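Hypothesis: this fold can be encoded by more than one sequence.
Test: take the structure tokens below, design a sequence, compare later.
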């Protein structure tokens, strides 16, 4: 058995899913991720029994997951059930059967526990998030107020009977009376107005499906859902559209997930009314929630304190280091040295910009395997698609564009045209400056960061100067001088070399 692997099994009202994580950090991509739409909460009356067929499908699914986890040498299995099992009159029978037939013990989460774990998962991938975490499942809508001034960054939480399956069952095919039911439940949350003008971080498969549909409908070029941010008024319009579509209309939408068609109108209805009553200004889609919150309970304090962006960049860089076994190339460990060497060029940067510049340093050799003729755009594409967390879409595009400029001084390409319009001009300038500075650094040292100690940079109002010792001046080649000049131009300055 491997103690560095954890299997999280989420026994939800709609689906049963297992994710196997390396228990080294949230930043590590899952080793296994599979779900089955068992529908435990489908056709379940409030407080009623789980259907025999749904229970059997869930038990068979958990048995398969246990078999796979054992074959993978997973050290621990953490299984949790949510609203459908929590409220079922025959929950003890179901849990006993799961334990007897699969060997897996399933804990039942309270509604507030579910909300807390979902919020912890969101915060782990989006540090500094503030607003409201909203996790929509088949049986419930779980809300947790994010409060940076409180332990774990969490405030009040509540679980409401507003899951998609629950609403469909209550409506009985007629959605006309559900709006008031949704409003009454939301109005009972007295602290909901605390997030007025703030952000909603939304979690759950049905809402993620809505986000992907919106991406497809607007031909949004970046298809990484995590961090996708939309203004509330646009989401309200989206919800009005999808809430009014019938099953036949949804089936004609190519991008609509077939296993979520029944849920989409209800998910849209809940989100639209939640936005209206809360007064939130933005919606941020999160791919991280309950399962990642469960993972947090198994991490060490050191792992919990790691910056998720930098940790995920280090893992990505480690996978692409060009000779990590022999200690050559900057690999994944020298991003800090590179960042410090370039610091004189960025004297007034914000904390967030410094963090993003360090991330660029960590990823600055990601393109070495790509043919030189294709390297700039493909390196940019790799960053856009990499499993990075701890950043929003604007930051991801800025980071990817910086890596492109690490390999070229040319500003125009189809990739820049495709994604560049999603960020501001000042962001594009930042990316070009960081990328050109990284290009100069790697030209000087060949990826061996220790060689940078022979040089230093300074900047004044007119020029950027590369300083060296008299005995090393001849080591600055033609390529380095050209790249110094190109970098200086990105700062609207001249480049010069001086011996100290």
């Amino acid at each position: 058995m491997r103690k560095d692997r954890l299997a999280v099994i989420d026994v939800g009202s709609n689906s049963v899913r297992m994710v196997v994580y390396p228990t080294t950090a949230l930043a590590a991509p899952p080793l296994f991720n599979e779900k089955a739409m068992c529908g435990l909460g489908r056709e379940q009356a409030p407080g009623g029994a789980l259907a025999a067929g749904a229970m059997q499908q869930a038990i068979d699914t958990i048995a398969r997951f246990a078999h796979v986890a054992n074959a993978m040498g997973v050290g621990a299995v953490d299984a949790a059930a949510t609203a459908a099992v929590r409220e079922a009159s025959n929950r003890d029978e179901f849990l006993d059967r799961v334990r007897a037939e699969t060997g897996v013990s399933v804990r039942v989460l309270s509604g507030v526990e579910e909300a807390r774990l979902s919020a912890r998962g969101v915060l782990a991938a989006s540090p500094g998030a503030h607003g409201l975490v909203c996790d929509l499942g088949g049986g419930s809508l779980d809300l947790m107020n994010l409060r940076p001034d409180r332990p774990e960054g969490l405030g009040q939480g509540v679980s409401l009977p507003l899951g998609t399956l629950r609403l469909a069952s209550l409506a009985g095919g007629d959605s006309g009376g559900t709006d008031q039911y949704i409003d009454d439940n939301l109005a009972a949350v007295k602290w909901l107005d605390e997030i007025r003008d703030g952000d909603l971080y939304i979690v759950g498969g049905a809402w993620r499906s809505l986000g992907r549909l919106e991406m497809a409908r607007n031909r949004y070029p970046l298809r990484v859902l995590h961090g996708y941010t939309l203004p509330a008024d646009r989401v309200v319009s989206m919800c009005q559209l999808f809430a009014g579509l019938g099953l036949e209309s949804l089936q004609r939408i190519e991008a609509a997930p077939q296993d979520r068609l029944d849920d989409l109108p209800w998910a849209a209805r809940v989100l639209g009314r939640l936005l209206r009553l809360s007064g939130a200004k933005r919606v941020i889609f999160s791919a991280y929630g309950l399962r990642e919150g469960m993972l947090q309970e198994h991490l060490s304090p050191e792992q919990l304190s790691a910056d998720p962006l930098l940790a995920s960049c280090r893992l990505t860089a480690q996978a692409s280091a060009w000779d990590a076994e022999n200690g050559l190339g900057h690999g994944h460990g020298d991003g800090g040295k590179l960042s410090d060497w370039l610091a004189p060029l960025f004297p007034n940067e914000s904390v967030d910009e410094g963090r993003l510049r360090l991330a660029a340093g960590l990823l600055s050799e990601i393109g070495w395997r790509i043919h030189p003729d294709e390297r700039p755009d493909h390196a940019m594409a790799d960053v856009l698609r990499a499993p990075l967390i701890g950043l929003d879409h604007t930051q991801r595009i800025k980071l990817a564009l910086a890596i492109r400029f690490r390999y070229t001084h040319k500003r125009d390409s189809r990739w820049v045209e495709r994604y560049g319009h999603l960020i501001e001009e000042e962001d594009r300038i930042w990316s070009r400056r960081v990328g050109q500075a990284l290009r100069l650094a790697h030209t000087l040292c060949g990826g061996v960061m220790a060689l940078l100690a022979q040089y230093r940079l300074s900047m004044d109002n007119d020029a950027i100067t590369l300083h060296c010792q008299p005995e090393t001046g001849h080591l600055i080649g033609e390529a380095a001088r050209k790249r110094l000049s190109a970098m200086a131009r990105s700062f609207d300055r001249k480049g010069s070399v001086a011996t100290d």
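Confidence is low (pLDDT under 50) at residues 324-332. DSSP finds 20 helices and 14 strands in the chain.
Hypothesis status: open.
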